[in-house]
Amino acid sequence: MAQRAFITGLSGLKLTKEERAFLREARPWGLILFKRNVEDKAQVTELVGEALHELGAAAPVLVDQEGGRVQRLGPPNWPAYPPGAAYARIYSRDPGAGLAAARLGARLIASDLLALGINVDCLPLADVPVRGADAVIGDRAYGDTPAQVAAIAQAVADGLADGGVLPVLKHIPGHGRATADSHMKLPVVDASRSTLEVTDFAAFRPLKNLPLGMTAHVVFTALDPVLPATTSATVIGEVIRRFIGFDGLLMSDDVSMGALSGSIGERTRASLAAGCDVVLHCNGKLDEMRQVAVQAPELAGEAARRAKAALAARKPAADIDLAGARKEFAALMQDESAA
C-alpha cells in the first residue's frame, strides 16, 4: 500500500506500542525527530531502526540540524556546529572560504546523521532577514542579500548531499521579513510583490532544483491578504511553483505551530488543498497524529512523483577523512571567531 501524505513525530526516546501500530497502519511518508527523541547514539539508532521496521527501510527520517540555536543532536554526544551567520562572516571577507566552510560543516553534519540512520536534514535556509524583523531567523541566516544567501545555501545543500543526506530548502517563499515567530503567532508581511520578488523570493530561485522544500507560515498580503503561504493556493501556485520554479516535494512547516488556526485536521486538509505535497506534524501527540492521518490521502499523482524523485536524489556518501575534515573545519571556525 502507498504511504500517506504526511510526516510524523514521536513522543519520546522509545517507540511505544501505540506508536508502532500507528506507523504500521497509518503509513506516514516519513518521520521527524526532535530533542525529546534524543539521548545518545545507541538510543537514536535503535529508535530509528524500529521506526523504519514499520515504515520501510527507504522511508525518509528527518531532523532539524542547522547548528547554533537549532540543533537537535548536540554535545556531549555530537559536535556543536555554528549558526549560519558564522559562514556569512567568513564569506564577507573571502567568499570562497565562506562557501568551503559551509559545505564542509554540512558534510560533517551529514556524517553524524547518517551514522544514526537519519537521511534528511531540514537545511538549508534561504530566508533573507531585514532590519526590524523577528529574531526567529536572526543568526540562522547566511547573510542579508539574496545572492549571498543563495550561494551559501547551495554550498550547505551540496555538503549534505555529499554525505548521503537529503537537504530541505526552507522556509519557502521566505521567513526573513516576518515580524513574529510563527511557532507562536501568525506573521503578516505587507511588503509589495515587486519588493518581495527581488529580495525574499529571489534567494530561493537559484535553489529551485533541490529535492525537498518546506513552506513558511507567513501571510504575504500582496499575494493573499488572509492565508499564510502554507495554506494559500495563490502563494504556492504563483510564487513557489511558478515564480521560484520549485518542483521538488513541498512539505508544510509543522501544522501544530501557533501560526495556523483551526483544528489539526482542518490545518492538514487546508495545507494539502493549497498545494503542499505532504504535511509535517511534529509534536508527537498521538491524538493529533491520528487526526492528521485521517485527512492525509495516499500519495498519488504529482505528489507521488515528487516524493519518488526526492528519494531517488539521495546518493551514497562520498569517502571522507573525517578526522582530517574535523580539524580543517575547526581551523576555519577558529579563524572566523578570531577575526
Protein model, in words:
This protein has 339 residues and is of the alpha/beta class. The protein has a single domain (65-263, 298-338), classed as Alpha-Beta Barrel (TIM Barrel), CATH 3.20.20. It contains 11 helices and 12 strands. The strands form 3 sheets. It has an 8-stranded parallel beta barrel, surrounded by 5 helices. Helix 1 (17-26) packs parallel to helix 9. It is globular, with a radius of gyration of 19 Å.
Output the keywords.
single chain, 339 residues, alpha/beta, TIM Barrel, 8-stranded parallel β-barrel, two-stranded antiparallel ribbon, 11 helices, 12 strands, globular
Pairing-aware structural class of the strands and helices? alpha/beta
**Which sequence of SSEs, written as H and E, runs from N to C?**
EHEHEEEHHEHEEHEEHEHEHHH
Mean of the pLDDT scores?
96
Q: Profile the largest sheet.
A: 8 strands, parallel, barrel
- Helicity level, as a percent range? 40-55%
- Measured by DSSP, the beta-strand proportion falls in 5-15%
What is the total number of structural domains? Answer: 1
In DSSP terms (H or I, runs of 4 or more residues), the helix count works out at 11
Low-confidence residue ranges: none
CATH C-level class: Alpha Beta
